[in-house]
Amino acid sequence: MDNLKQYYQELGVDSKVYDYVNVIESGLKGRFEQLDAVAELNQLKVLNAMQKYKISEAHLGGTTGYGYNDIGREAIEAVYADVFGTEDALVRPQITCGTHALGLALSANLRPGDEILAISGKPYDTLEEVIGIRESKGSLAEYGITYCQVDLLPNGSFDYEGIQKAVNERTKLIHIQRSKGYASRPTLSVDQIGEGIAFVKDLNADLIVMVDNCYGEFVEEKEPSNAGADMVVGSLIKNPGGGLAPIGGYICGRSDLIEQCSYRLTTPGLGKEVGASLGVNRQFIQGLFMAPTVTNAAVKGAVFAANLYEKLGFKVIPDGKESRHDIIQAVELNDPQKLIAFCEGIQKASPVDSHVTPVPWDMPGYDSDVIMAAGTFVSGASIELSADGPMKEPYAVYFQGGLTYPHAKYGIVMSLQRMVEKGLLEI
Ligand SMILES: *Cc1c(COP(=O)(O)O)cnc(C)c1O
Question: Which is the closest atom of ligand 1 to the Cα of 126?
Answer without folding.
Answer: 4
